[in-house]
Amino acid sequence: MLNEILSALVAVATLQNLLIMIAGIWGGVIVGAIPGMTGTMAVTLALPFTFYMEPVPSILLLVALYKGSTYGGSVSAILIKTPGTASAACTALDGYPLAQQGKAGKALNMALYSSVIGDFISNLSLIFFAAPLAVLALRIGPPEFFMLMLFALTTVAGVSGSSLLLGLVSAALGLLLATVGEDMYGSFRFAFTPDMQAGLSIAPVLIGLFALPELIKLVVMRVAKKEEAATLGAQQVTREEFMGSLKAILKGSVIGSVLGAIPGIGPSSAAFFSYGEAQRSSKRGANFGKGELEGIAASESANNGACGATMIPLLALGVPGDVITGVMLGAFMIQGLTPGPLLFQTNIHEVYMLLIGMLVSSVLLFFAGKVTMRMFSKVSHIPQTLLTPLVLLLCIFGIYSIASSTFDVAVLLIMGVVGFGMFLLNIPAAPFLIAFILGPMLEENLRRALAISRGDISVLLSSPITWIFAVLILFVLTLTVRREIQKTKTERRLAQ
Amino acid sequence: MPKPVLRGLIIVAFFALSAFVLVPVYVPRPAFIPGFAPPPDMWPRTVSLAGILLGALVLIFAFTREQPAEEPVETDGSSPARMSARFAGLMLAFVLFLVAIPLLGFLVSSVLLTLCIVLMTGERGHHIWVALLAFGGPILLQMFFHSALGTQFPKGVLTKPFGF
């Protein structure tokens, strides 16, 4: 085994492979930082170029793009409150307030450190736990999946905003919007126009909900923030701040690695889950959402932590964990490699090369992040009255370019108005988004579970795993309600 | 009307509209559903009914419980009527942008929308930057997405002879 690892190390450590990984990571960071351009888009666009490459470098390029774009989403989330990717939505909750306080550099540095650590731990988990975790994930059936996602949704609803009730309302709105389009048996639901038959894409809903309300607020309320973010050089994360967030980083990395290994969960859910857990367990939990470094650490370590882990079911079972690994599955097959248990027997050299390359790419992510951070920090010096229309332009062109659809642009604008309305009514946007992403999977697993059990609803509590999740849901609900009651009492006492 | 009450009413009204009007009309049931598979309207109906319940709870708490202090919305001090007019103007700009795309093309419509939005934000200085943003921004973005992704942006019926 050691010989195999050493020979794989030598094979990876070529100038060509390093350059490919650097290009992939850097390109990914830039793509991820542009609102409307997603990691999926970057990986899909790079796929044709891999036809002319060797198997391992081609997969390394795609993995590097994936990792880079996942981190890159945090750059725009922090600087302009526009998460470049869905998984960075949580980062915006604390990153943007920090940028407004003149601590953009601190937020970006914390995001980078957390991402690199999360990514590294995730790669280690991929190396050591690929097969056992994948086998465990395979045992999860529709009822367990439904309860797992319901648990994730309850957690997000509980931690976003000031009220659990409003968080749940927001999640219900997201679930309802996710039903638009063709269902699993071919019926068209809420298809008011022919364009709606295909359903609503995630990108316009995500960008519209998070980026456009800022523009509408600026136009309607005209409260342009005059302060600019301080220079990055003076905003290094101190040792105390880093150590104070280390627990959240490590916990987030583990959450990302475990959730990323379960097919269908992906970096977005991992980030939300980790953020909620960090807020629940942190001494500074009340400060989350107002500019807390620990919040960024939890979110970023989890979303990058999920990146490597999504490769676990792909490599061990041939099951893609999300859209990006689905594209990668295609890349493997084009290169003549078939992911699954046999891959570890027939192509063990390539597997080791890939695993070592992924570890190296974690280090490269650090340097690429530093360089890109300085480049994008210039954004914070642009007046808001110019920057916000520029963001709108980026969003409109980016969204149109995904599917060449004017309908998607209309969805973007409408979701902006919806987001503004939610802001006025104090309804948090995060549960809406995560419910919109998880909604189709949640419904599909519920319907499958009911179909298998011949309509018996008790199937949702038929196994120990479903019971564990049910108890966890009750636990989260109780904790959140208790926290809200305590908060109300404290406010009343302070008022008196 | 106090904000919590208004919020509860809006939530109940929206989900009631969905459960009792939109789902029955816009979620057709297929003639044949295989085995014990739940029908397509099961999930949206369940979510809508849950939404009504949640909205009712919001409404009940608005009347019975002391509401936690909500952070006031920061404004420039304009009257609500003025702010409503600004909002209506922005909505009109969005609608006109979508209507203008088939007529003027994506590029020209984007230039006009950007100019309109910059003016609506109250920006009256930085003339060169505004011009660069409104004209240079859309042109550069169109060139980038066209060359990098091969995106074909729609040309307008009226501006097609000029190449836009």
Compile the SSE list and pairings:
The complex is a heterodimer of chains A (496) and B (164).
Chain A: H1 2-12, H2 15-33, H3 39-50, H4 55-80, H5 89-100, H6 104-138, H7 142-159, H8 164-178, E1 181-182, E2 188-189, H9 202-210, H10 212-221, H11 239-261, H12 266-281, H13 293-309, H14 311-317, H15 323-334, H16 343-346, H17 348-376, H18 384-403, H19 406-424, H20 430-452, H21 464-495
Antiparallel strand pairs in A: 1-2
Helix pairs in contact in A: 1-17, 2-4, 2-17, 3-4, 3-15, 4-5, 4-6, 4-13, 4-15, 4-17, 5-6, 5-13, 6-11, 6-13, 6-14, 6-17, 7-8, 7-12, 7-20, 7-21, 8-20, 9-19, 10-18, 10-19, 11-12, 11-13, 12-13, 18-19
Chain B: H1 3-26, H2 42-64, H3 80-120, H4 127-149
Structure report:
Chain A: Pfam families: TctA (PF01970). Chain A: This is C4-dicarboxylate ABC transporter permease. Chain A: It comes from Alloyangia mangrovi. The complex is a heterodimer of chains A (496) and B (164). With 496 residues, chain A is mainly α. Chain A has one domain (2-495). Helices cover 74% and strands 1% of the residues of chain A. A two-stranded antiparallel sheet of chain A has the order 1-2. In chain A, helix 2 (15-33) crosses helix 17, helix 4 packs antiparallel against helix 15 (323-334) and helix 6 packs antiparallel against helix 17 (348-376). By secondary structure, chain B is mostly helical. Chain B has 2 domains: 3-64; 93-162, no CATH class. In chain B, 68% of the residues lie in helices and 0% in strands. Chain B has helices at residues 3-26, 42-64, 80-120, 127-149. Chain B is flat, with a radius of gyration of 24 Å. The mean pLDDT of chain B is 88. The interface between A and B is large, with 67 and 79 residues.
